[in-house]
Amino acid sequence: MVGTPGDGTERRRYLPIAEHGLIGDLRSVALVGTDGTIDWYCCPSFDAPSVFATVLDADRGGCFELAAGGAARTKQFYFPDTNVLITRFYTEDGVGEVQDFMPVSEDSAESERHRLIRRVLCVRGSLPFRARVAPRFEYGGQPHTLRLVDDVALFESVSLSLGLTATVPLEVDGADARADFKLSEGETAVFALDQVSGEVAPRRCPIAEAEEQFGQTVAYWRRWLSASKYRGRWREMVHRSALTLKLLTYAPTGAIVAAPTTSLPEHLGGERNWDYRYVWVRDAAFCVYAMLRLGFTSEAAQFMRFVTRHISSGDGKPSGPLQIMYGIDGRTELPERELPHLEGHEGSAPVRVGNAAAEQLQLDIYGALIDSIYLYDKWAEPISSDQWDDVCALVDWVCEHWDQPDEGIWETRGGRKNFLYSRLMCWVAIERAVRMANRRGLPADLPRWQTCRDTIYRRIMCRGWCESRGAFVQHEDCEVLDAAVLMMPLAKFIAPTDPKWLSTLDALTEELVSDSLVYRYDPRISPDGLRGDEGTFSICSFWYVEAMVRAGRVEEAQLAFEKMLTYANHLGLYAEEISHSGQQQGNFPQAFTHLSLISAAFNLDRALG
């Protein structure tokens, strides 16, 4: 039970990040803990202020508790091949479950309701249940009132109003709503939380309607997943990753968020806490690759339209024609601020909203994007003449600007450097555009592009290689190793069996790999402008698997992959990082991790035959 600080009530403890499942409606998501509590929910969109946020402050964040009364063991799983989440409660008197889901509606008016349904069932014996709905609007910073109107509990604040209906009696407890009820075997209760406004009136959710919407939601997800072409060894994990990436898609624009949360710490007690509820061009472009691999072309097409709308001329903009990230509606202003009234997960302050990295220069995004356009043109449908004009403008800009220092893929706040990975992805941008032009006979300044591409190649081979380390390094004229160079053979820049690459792979294995887990770099050797340690970076761990596959070290790769799967949570979900004790760290779940899992599984399957 959450209590206001100092009121004498029991203080609710934090669930570990990994002890959560995810539900959503392609506009926002909710995190549901293994104890049945919704710990995180933003309404009406991914990047809207939170309504429930006990994952960031156990006392002030707000939550929706729903659980069996008394002592209970719990287990959590997804209804097969869907994003419908089930939390089961096992007690001495029986077994109950809560089915959590958000209907995905094609009807624009109904989708504005942003309905969240919680079905409670007693499947064996007889069980008491308790519910407590305690929203805290605007990240816990805006007061609200609560009133009962025709059995609808209306939570009203200046910026947002929510309506709660239930098939059991609700009681008002200050600014919160409560319900205590008992179910016998076969009985059901339903709670439904809606956004309400002038156009969306409160509406009850009878048991029959909840059952119907449950069936429709199950059918939606199974229909979507049936388009997958993956038939490999790790089907369950790959499909869970695909379903998770789909949940991170904002349907109205085709945007794909990096993660649905903010400020979950990369290190408990540290300051590496960031807001990931935005569209990173790099992350979303890699998502397109993963979706195309599996056969989901419509998601790729929607993202292509999103990007096309937001490419500018680049004149006078330090980041060029593209920002590294956008709001889910395409907005470019994402001012970063701290919320000092929230203590942060397990006391890990600060809690941040917005992201100042939006103003950084990260040249690698051009390679990630043009590579995804190249694959879309090859595997889905030919890009249009207007889209080709956009590609040409991007490549021309890259040819002019590739040789300047930037903040790099890891968004360091310790100053710009000549990062190898940024050079590599500039090479990819030009090389893939040359391929498209040659394959389709499209007009392009090929002599200039090819000269620039070859210049970048020579620069990397000359100044990115460190003879004393016997490895490619993080940035020019240094000896620091960086896991981002694992992309070199994956991007087809260098042969995966080239002696220089195999030497680099051995050096990375010795210095940055721990039981298949890969650190992105050592911040003690390469200061990144931030205090505190971090865990291993899961996308790098899957890149490592793929690099070993391509190098012919298939048995080692398979073992590393199987070990990585053991670090997933009970539902197959991953955060950004893994701590030294094997705990999930950082925002959760992380698109980057899941898309790299898909790619690693696909390539490992192919190598195993």
Can I get a quick summary?
Helices cover 33% and strands 21% of the residues. It is built from 15 helices and 28 strands.
Question: Please, could you describe this protein's structure?
Answer:
By secondary structure, the chain is of the alpha+beta class. Helices cover 33% and strands 21% of the residues. The protein is built from 15 helices and 28 strands. A hairpin with a 4-residue loop joins strand 11 and strand 12.
Task: Give the helices and strands, then pairings.
Blueprint: E1 20-24, E2 29-33, E3 38-42, E4 50-52, E5 63-68, E6 73-78, E7 85-91, E8 94-101, H1 108-111, E9 116-134, H2 137-140, E10 145-149, E11 152-156, E12 161-166, E13 171-173, E14 176-184, E15 188-195, H3 207-225, H4 235-247, E16 249-250, E17 255-256, E18 279-280, H5 281-294, H6 297-310, E19 325-326, E20 337-338, E21 352-353, H7 364-379, H8 385-401, H9 420-440, H10 446-463, E22 465-466, E23 471-472, H11 487-490, H12 499-512, E24 513-514, E25 517-518, E26 536-537, H13 538-550, H14 554-566, E27 577-578, E28 584-585, H15 591-608
Antiparallel strand pairs: 1-2, 2-3, 3-4, 5-9, 6-7, 7-8, 8-9, 9-14, 9-15, 10-11, 11-12, 12-15, 13-14, 16-17, 18-19, 20-21, 22-23, 24-25, 26-27, 27-28
Helix pairs in contact: 4-15, 5-6, 5-7, 5-15, 7-9, 8-9, 9-10, 13-14, 13-15, 14-15
Let me know the largest β-sheet.
11 strands, antiparallel
Cα-based radius of gyration, to the nearest Å? 25 Å
Proportion in β-strands: 15-25%
Number of helices: 15
Shape: globular
Helix content: 25-40%
Using DSSP, what is the number of strands?
A: 28
Mean pLDDT across all residues, rounded?
Answer: 93
What ranges have pLDDT less than 50 throughout 5 or more consecutive residues?
1-11
Taking the alpha carbons of the first and last residues, their distance comes to 52 Å
Structural class: alpha+beta
